[in-house]
Specification:
heterotrimer, A: about 425 residues, mainly alpha, 3-stranded antiparallel β-sheet, two-stranded antiparallel sheet, 20 helices, extended, disordered N terminus, B: about 400 residues, Formate dehydrogenase/DMSO reductase fold, about 70% helix
């Protein structure tokens, strides 16, 4: 097993490398307390915080000052037309490229992104957003000395100092309940796949990815939907449980609602920030005692039975046991802590069937599906197909064998004695 | 045959007449069954196997074996090998009867035979190889009829028309060669459209070439084979000139056949290499293929060569028969045995006995007509009035 | 004379070369199907094997009622093919992975973009319509069944038991209904949306979307997108197509291309052969004539020599008698 592992990692290199170019840089560090814990002998931390993705709130565009211009002149070998692409008219970019896209002229933003990043990719210049757009990050970049730049053909841009800044995103850190996750996995190696009980992000899956971690960045390591070891990947596997797959099998793999990010990257009050361990325990306790928010909808005014009779031609109407279905779904959630954590509102239940309903309103199938299929949008079937796909698909995935998919009269009442 | 009257009662009940008579009567019954009950009543044809022995044997083999007509007439009239003149008329007669039989067999096989002229008069499916085959066979049948007509006209004593047609000989021969080249090769090209159904060893983009070469081999061998038969059966009909030329023909055609067989063998090997099909040779079908290639191409090639070199005429004639068997085998392989090889045994085709019955009936009819013509018209001998013109 | 003949031959050969070139060039053009033609996408992962499509097909085409009713699903345990009484059949294929449910696949004419049957038919009884369906005209069909030989999907069937007017029978993709802006009967009735009707291009796009959205639910292949040059019917599946009795070794060459080369050779033979054969004939005739003349000369010279000899002998005699 140990011998095979390096090979597996090698195969990931190219994927990782490609992803490296496109992904934002993230820094995940252990909080001080946990670092102490780990350096202390083999004490399992109860809770981590992860400093993670923060979006580039305000852009502070790098000024293309004289020193930078000189540098580029040298790199291009004084071929002005490399950038000033209209020959004989070497003027400022903004002379032509305005704020927004015009008929033939793309906007300044698009023009600079296309030519700068395009060239940087080939010449190994900075390509990450922050490297040009964050004031403090820009300071880390120096243009080479005027004297050496002219003789050195290599691009002379490098990072000042060894460590990148620790937090470049506005995303909240993740409170990771290590104890609880440990309870569900007998084998620590499922996550700690190298067999070492250290932090994922300290040496291997660093923000930028390191050779040790096969250049898989921290962001990728935590979010990769296809990896069994990543948070999301493992949660995806859990969604394949019979209780979950009824709704989740209908949804796209690894794709989540925006709000779902906050389920992990939740708000942490400043006061407890340094006592992550304690807070984690509190949160965990909270989960155990609290009545799941999803159960609240049972108390609300929901239909017990829905009669589907919009299309009854050959067959009679169907009585859909609406409440019974919801109860079944909720009972599946109730016994699963992971499910409870993520299903905390009415929507999380209802949208399982009433997918694509606009926020704040639950629509019946006929709200979107007309009697005939949409010939413009092939993903929107006609009403009959929508009903059948939803009911049969869910029953199939949840392993509900009765009623059978082909047992028409198990759901439908036969209309008269008209048999065909 | 059977209208000779009471005075010749004894001669009617010869073994030949009795056997053919029974077969013909039986064939007529089968014909009635075919055209009242549909194809399902007499054949094992199915949706997986739309073509049976009526196509595989009667059409493909029939056309191939009738190639003697164009081979012999081309040799004599175009290549100027006058010494083989005696072979021409029997070969053309066989060819004419062969093609006529093909058309008759086709009208048993196709669903609506009276629509056979539709491709020419209603809608021309020019993208179809079968259209090419159809139009060539149709034209060639006319050419063969004209080519053979001098014999019939001599018999009828219509000298003027006979000399008119006789003058067309070279033109007709050239037409015959062109049409034969086209349709003999196109019969192979018929199967080009089904690479997924024909076993890769038999399927090749060279199929039309193979069919043309084998047609020449079949033509040469049929002249020899049928010559040998005629010398046994119709010895009294042969005149001195034909008897003398007989051995010349055997040696000359035998030599030609040996060379063409060798060439065919080589192109086959090239074909396997081109498609890189060597690995199939060790499978069951591969062994069967080797049997065909070595046993029915390589071996006859060798025996022809030995026969010619050592002037062993009997060996040449037996080899001719063997080669004809090989051609039949080749056509059956392509049309039936190696076709649909991917299907499970339960879906494969084996001819119904009535299908075989109708095939036998048709061949018998051909034989009867052949005998009728040979015993009356100047085919195996030169008509005394026209000796010089040959 | 000889120069003009040579010229003539060179013209002919030039003509032949250009012919070969044009046919070769013509073969390179690729027909991508009629623009905006329709197709049907069969998603086997959501087919439940209810046989409603068979039922609908049967009634819309006025085919004879089957022995067992369409509601009898036990028939699915046996492999079936299209017949003259059923333009379409649904078959069940067990998943090798025992945990996964068996898969159902509907089979019928795939309506190729460049149909083998249409290319093979020598009366043009088959036609690829611009709407997508491949139609059949029983009024001209001779019944040679070459279409059945040609069809790589083994779909056309024949009324062997019909003595006078047998027809080739196959799915029509409900061409008449399509022309009236209606759905084909099987698509219309399909309860689960396993059959989807639309523009072929849009269907391919949709199929790709499905595959990329649910990578673990589908094999990354749209059967019919390229097979035999592309078909109007498309299939996506979670079981390999081979396992569902669909051949994956058919290649992407459209059927007409397979015989195009052989047909292209026809004009070459027609134009080259007469020239060659006439030439050979002329050479042989000339040889014969020369031989005859030589023979005649030899004979005459021999005769003369003989005569001279005789005269000499007689002269000698005379001289002898003199001397």
């Amino acid at each position: 097993m140990k011998q095979r592992r390096p090979q597996y990692h090698k195969s990931l290199v190219c994927i990782a490398c490609m992803a490296f170019i496109f992904t934002f840089t993230i820094r995940v560090t252990l909080t001080k307390g946990e670092q102490d814990d780990i350096s202390g002998n083999e004490i399992k931390p109860d809770l981590f915080t992860m400093d993670t993705l923060k979006s580039f709130g305000a852009f502070e565009t790098k000024k293309f000052d004289k020193s930078l211009h000189d540098l580029h002149t040298d790199i291009t070998g004084k071929e002005c037309n490399t950038c000033h692409h209209v020959k004989g008219k070497e003027v400022s970019c903004r002379k032509c490229h305005k704020e927004t896209d015009r008929k033939k002229l793309i906007s300044m933003k698009n023009a600079s992104h296309l030519s700068c990043i395009g060239c940087h990719r080939e010449m190994s210049g900075p390509v990450n957003c922050s490297e040009c757009h964050k004031a403090n990050e820009q300071q880390k970049i120096v243009s080479g000395d005027d004297s050496s730049a002219s003789t050195n053909p290599e691009p002379d841009i490098k990072h000042k100092g060894e460590n990148r800044i620790s937090s470049i995103t506005d995303m909240n850190p993740v409170l990771f309940d290590h104890e609880t996750h440990g309870q569900y996995q007998e084998n620590c190696n499922l996550c700690h796949h190298t067999g070492e009980s250290g932090s994922c992000t300290q040496t291997c899956h660093t923000v930028d990815g390191s050779k040790q971690g096969n250049v898989i960045t921290a962001e990728q390591a935590m979010h990769g939907p296809d990896s069994k070891r990543s948070c999301i990947g493992c949660h995806e596997i859990n969604k394949k449980n019979k209780e979950c797959s009824g709704c989740h099998g209908f949804m796209e793999n690894g794709k989540n609602f925006n709000e779902i990010c906050l389920k992990c990257h939740m708000d942490i009050p400043e006061s407890v920030d340094n006592k992550a361990t304690k807070r984690g325990a509190d949160t965990a306790r909270n989960h155990k005692t609290q009545k799941p928010a999803s159960e609240e909808i049972l108390d609300k005014d929901i239909a017990d039975v829905v009669i589907i009779d919009k299309l009854s031609a050959q067959y009679g109407a169907v009585e859909l046991p609406h409440r019974q279905i919801i109860e079944a779904l909720i009972s599946g959630i109730k016994n699963n802590r992971l499910a409870r954590h993520f299903h905390d509102g009415k929507e999380t239940i209802c949208l399982g069937c009433h997918h694509n309903s606009p926020s704040g309103k639950i629509l019946g199938c006929a709200g979107c599906h007309s009697k005939t299929a949409d010939d413009q949008d092939l993903s929107r079937p006609g009403l009959m197909v929508a009903y059948h796909q939803q009911c049969m698909g869910c029953h199939d995935r949840m392993g509900i064998e009765s009623p059978e998919s082909t047992g028409c009269v198990d759901c439908h009442k036969i209309k008269k004695a008209k048999t065909k | 045959m059977f209208k000779n009257g009471n005075s010749t009662v004894k001669s009617i009940f010869t073994p030949f007449n009795v056997i053919t008579g029974i077969i013909v009567l039986f064939g007529l019954v089968l014909t009635v069954v075919r055209f009242t009950g549909g194809l399902a009543a007499v054949s094992n044809l199915s949706d997986y196997n739309p073509w049976g022995i009526w196509i595989g044997l009667d059409l493909l083999t029939g056309v191939a074996l009738a190639a003697g007509g164009f081979v012999a007439s081309a040799a004599v009239y175009i290549f100027g090998m006058k010494k083989y003149h005696a072979a021409v008329r029997p070969a053309i007669l066989t060819a004419f009867l062969g093609y006529a039989l093909v058309v008759v067999a086709l009208s048993y096989d196709v669903g609506i035979p009276w629509r056979l002229p539709y491709p020419f008069i209603i809608q021309q499916g020019t993208t179809s190889v079968l259209f090419e085959v159809g139009i060539c066979v149709c034209l060639y049948l006319i050419v063969l009829f004209l080519e053979f007509s001098p014999a019939a006209l001599e018999w009828l004593g219509m000298k003027k028309i006979r000399s008119l047609v006789h003058r067309l000989t070279v033109v007709l021969t050239i037409f015959g060669v062109i049409l034969s080249t086209l349709h003999q090769s196109s019969l192979g090209a018929l199967f080009l459209i089904a690479p997924s159904k024909l076993h890769p060893l038999w399927y090749s983009s060279y199929l039309p070439v193979y069919f043309f070469i084998t047609a020449i081999i079949a033509g040469l061998s049929m002249v020899l084979f049928e010559g040998a038969l005629c010398h046994h059966l119709f010895a009294d009909k042969l005149d001195e000139a034909h008897k003398q030329e007989k051995d010349q023909i055997a040696l000359g055609f035998g030599k030609a056949a040996s060379w063409v067989l060798a060439g065919y063998f080589a192109t086959k090997v090239v074909g396997i290499s081109a498609d890189n099909n060597w690995h199939y040779l060790l499978t069951g079908y591969g062994l069967w293929y080797l049997t065909e290639l070595l046993g029915f191409v390589g071996l006859p090639c060798l025996f022809y060569a030995i026969g010619v070199r050592e002037r062993r005429l009997t060996l040449i004639r037996w080899t001719a028969g063997w080669t004809v068997m090989g051609i039949i085998l080749n056509r059956l392989n392509i049309c039936i045995i190696a076709f649909n090889w991917h299907l499970p045994a339960s879906e494969r085709y084996f001819p119904h006995w009535m299908e075989i019955g109708i095939s036998v009936f048709l061949i018998t009819c051909g034989l009867i007509v052949f005998k009728y013509v040979v015993s009356r018209m100047p085919v195996l001998y030169s008509h005394p009035d026209y000796k010089e013109t040959h | 004379m000889s120069i003009s003949r040579r010229k003539f031959i060179s013209w002919i050969s030039a003509g032949c070369t250009s012919l070969i070139c044009t046919t070769a060039h013509g073969a390179k053009k690729q027909f991508k199907g009629y623009p905006d033609s329709f197709g049907i996408l069969h998603d086997t992962t959501i087919c439940i094997g209810c046989r409603r499509c068979e039922d609908a097909c049967n009634s819309v085409n006025n085919l004879p009622a089957p022995e067992k009713p369409f509601t009898d699903l036990s028939i699915l345990d046996k492999k079936r093919r299209t017949t003259t009484k059923a333009y379409t059949v649904v078959n069940k294929y067990e998943n090798k992975d025992k945990n996964k449910a068996s898969v159902f696949r509907k089979s019928q004419c795939n309506h190729c973009l460049e149909p083998a049957c249409a290319s093979a038919c020598f009366v043009k009884a088959f036609k690829k319509t611009k709407e997508g369906p491949v139609t059949y005209d029983p009024k001209v069909c001779v019944g040679c069944r070459y279409c059945m030989i040609a069809c790589p999907f083994e779909i056309p069937t024949y009324e062997y038991d019909e003595p006078l007017t047998p027809r080739v029978m196959k799915c029509t993709m409900c061409h008449d209904l399509i022309k009236k802006d209606k759905l084909p009967a099987c698509v219309e009735i399909c309860p689960t949306g396993s059959l989807k009707f639309g523009k072929r291009d849009a269907l391919i796009k949709y199929a790709r979307e499905r595959i990329s959205k649910f990578p673990d639910r589908y094999i990354d292949h749209i059967y019919g997108e390229h097979e035999m040059g592309g078909t109007s019917w498309l299939y996506i599946s979670n079981l390999s197509f081979n396992e569902m009795g669909m051949r994956e070794d058919l290649g992407i060459t459209p059927a007409p291309e397979l015989t195009a080369g052989a047909l292209g050779a026809v004009p070459v033979v027609v134009s080259l052969w007469p020239v060659l054969l006439t030439g050979i004939y002329a050479i042989n005739r000339r040889k014969e004539k020369l031989a005859e003349r030589e023979k005649a000369e030899a004979v005459s010279s021999a005769v003369e020599a003989a005569k001279a000899g005789r005269e000499k002998v007689s002269l000698d005699k005379v001289r002898g008698s003199d001397g």
